[in-house]
Specification:
Layout lengths: L4 E4 L3 H12 L4 E4 L3 H10 L6 E3 L3 H6 L6 E4 L5 H10 L8 E4 L5 H12 L4 E8 L1 H7 L2 E6 L1 H14 L2 E2 L2 E2 L9 H29 L5 H12 L6 H11 L22 H12 L4 H13 L2 H10 L11 H33 L6 H7 L10 H11 L10 H8 L2 H14 L4 H13 L6 H12 L16 H4 L1
Parallel strand pairs: 1-2, 1-4, 2-3, 4-5, 5-6
Antiparallel strand pairs: 6-7, 8-9
The structure holds NADPH dihydro-nicotinamide-adenine-dinucleotide phosphate.
NADPH dihydro-nicotinamide-adenine-dinucleotide phosphate binds next to helix 1, helix 4, strand 6 and helix 6.
GO molecular function, one term: phosphogluconate dehydrogenase (decarboxylating) activity
Enzyme class: oxidoreductase
Family: Belongs to the 6-phosphogluconate dehydrogenase family.
Length: 470
């Protein structure tokens, strides 16, 4: 009896996904470059599941029913290309490779093209939810041809997380649509994490709240509109004590945030496509700045940052912080969805934004109650990709603006950097402004580079010899 599917790459994600697939009744062959990892996995984690180990690629491929379906869960980048090259001699036209890693979407497009010539089907599939999600039900974002998706649809729908709106998996769109959506998912994830961190900073430095107390407030927020996975883990983090010192563990963690690239790709791609995503971009900048710890320690001794003492009504500020965070989360989604929509048009992905929001509702890191509301807005008008042109949005943001302004002001008066929150507010102001000062930019460009400009009172393209008229 041949196995239904093969999985290559038995690090944390691959192991858990293999177990999830097998527990849902699909037999799995597994392979890992380093055989010890395969052995350890089989010995330690596989019990009654139908998972068979293979130690060479030829017998691994031969163990699969045709057309073969193989999931790659290896490190993104070169390793994916290497694995494809190693597999090719054993594959036949009609076989399917699914890349479940965090591959760069342009790499996925290239691989789809290259493999199409050989008759090999390819899906680029975003997988979100970390190791827990992979085991118990992730959010799955597969993209590629419909034909390729159909081959594994039944299995994907079974292994995905479930919500009242169905399994958190859908055919996202053509070509590299799946990896594109996963990339932006991560960009939004970076922004929401940074926003929570900025709010936390105000709570600890301005309101002088101990971690445990912050945790209690986060927990209460998680019971309301801010209900989300990231809010939930944040309140849980606040409770954890270091075993040795008894202090809250979060307070002992070095303030240097790491990154693997998906947030940066989101920002780079947004710049390429000409879609404004300042809040997502600032979240990447914040991680970069955090890395200059030694420099920050030095400069903190010399650079003047006047810290005013502010008289505060704690309960009021906490309400403002909650609203400010909601505002920031909404704006982060607004920017991410706009970017996805533009890519969908430019790269012909044909993505349904309402479906994207639906499959983000469970399993993934950015799952949140607010997604229901965002879906309502998109369903009302699918052209309103950035969510801003809706009465629902106006009513939602109306009572939050003053809170964001208040928190932004507190940040400035206390010398606290709020890169994401301030950028969300400025993005909002900019889009809500009829007359931006870009007229001056155009004049400057024309002054030094004869780049020309348009006028508000006449049709046409104009150039001025500025110095002659001065
Ligand atoms: P890693 O990203 O740490 O990758 C390790 C796996 O890749 C190992 O199986 C390793 O094999 C294999 N590998 C590395 N280089 C090669 C190569 N040149 N040829 C063949 N195999 C190679 O593992 P994760 O489980 O963390 O992630 C897998 C994928 O899923 C990545 O793309 C990641 O970005 C993505 N992802 C991860 C999430 C997470 O929470 N960790 C969440 C969502 C997606 P060996 O044992 O031989 O070294």
């Amino acid at each position: 009896m041949k196995n239904y599917i093969g999985l290559i790459g038995l690090a944390v994600m691959g192991q858990n996904l293999a177990l999830n697939i097998a527990r849902n009744g699909f037999s799995v062959s597994v392979y890992n470059r380093t055989p010890e990892r395969t052995k350890e996995f089989i010995e330690k984690r596989v019990k009654e599941e139908k998972i068979d180990p293979y130690y060479d690629l030829k017998s691994f491929v031969e163990s699969l029913e045709k057309p073969r379906k193989i999931i790659l869960m290896v490190k993104a980048g070169q390793p994916v290309d290497e694995m494809i090259q190693e597999l090719l001699p054993y594959l036949e036209p009609g076989d399917l490779i699914i890349d479940g890693g965090n591959s760069y979407f342009r790499d996925t497009s290239r691989r789809i093209r290259e493999l199409k010539d050989k008759g090999i089907l390819y899906l680029g599939m975003g997988v979100s939810g970390g190791e827990y999600g992979a085991l118990h039900g992730p959010s799955l974002m597969p993209g590629g041809t419909k034909e390729a998706y159909k081959l594994v649809e039944e299995m994907l729908l079974k292994i995905a997380a479930k919500t009242e709106d169905g399994p958190c998996c859908t055919y996202v769109g053509d070509d590299s649509a799946g990896h594109f959506v996963k990339m932006v998912h991560n960009g939004i994830e970076y922004a929401i994490m940074e926003l929570i961190a900025e709010i936390y900073d105000i709570m600890r430095k301005v309101l002088n709240m101990p971690s445990e107390e912050i945790g209690k407030v986060f927990e209460s927020w998680n019971n309301g509109e801010l209900n989300s996975f990231l809010m939930e883990i944040s309140y849980k983090i606040m409770r954890v004590k270091d075993e040795e010192t008894g202090k809250p563990l979060v307070e002992l963690i070095l303030d240097k945030a790491e990154q693997k690239g998906t947030g940066k790709w989101t920002a780079q791609t947004a710049l390429d496509l000409g879609i404004p995503t300042p809040t997502l971009n600032m979240a990447v900048e914040a991680r970069i700045i955090s890395h200059f710890k030694d420099l920050r320690v030095e400069l903190s001794k010399t650079l003047p940052v006047s810290k005013e003492s502010i008289s505060l009504n704690r309960e009021e500020i906490l309400k403002d912080l909650e609203k400010a965070l909601l505002f920031g989360v909404f704006i982060s989604f607004s920017q991410g969805l706009w970017l996805i929509d533009e890519a969908s048009k430019v790269l012909n992905y044909n993505i349904d934004l309402s479906e994207v929001l639906r499959i983000w509702k469970g399993g993934c890191i950015i799952r949140a109650k607010i997604l229901n509301f965002l879906r309502e807005i998109i369903k009302e008008n699918p052209q309103n990709a950035n969510l801003l042109a809706s009465e629902k949005t106006v009513n939602f943001l109306k009572d939050k603006i003053e809170s964001v302004k208040k928190i932004s002001d507190i940040g400035k008066r206390s010398g606290i950097s709020l890169l994401c929150l301030n950028s969300a507010l400025d993005y909002y102001f900019a889009l809500a402004t009829e007359n931006l000062p870009a007229n001056l930019i155009q004049a400057q460009r024309d002054f030094f580079g004869a780049h020309t400009y348009e006028r508000i009172d006449k049709e046409g393209i104009f150039h001025t010899e500025w110095e002659k008229l001065e």
